Amino acid sequence: MRIKVPAWHTMLYRGGELYKKLRCETGLHWSQLFSKYFCCILILVTCHHYALHHLGS
Fold this sequence. Notes:
Keywords: Membrane, Transmembrane, Transmembrane helix. The chain is an all-alpha fold.
């Protein structure tokens, strides 16, 4: 059974919700959050890209 990758709009929505939650909890500006979590985001995007191209075919 193939893993279903969530649609981009779903991922963006979840990202937005997570951002709001983080901003409320940490009080950081989006640019600070972005630089802080940039490595995590980069790894996630890379894994997602890999999964789409190598597991999805």
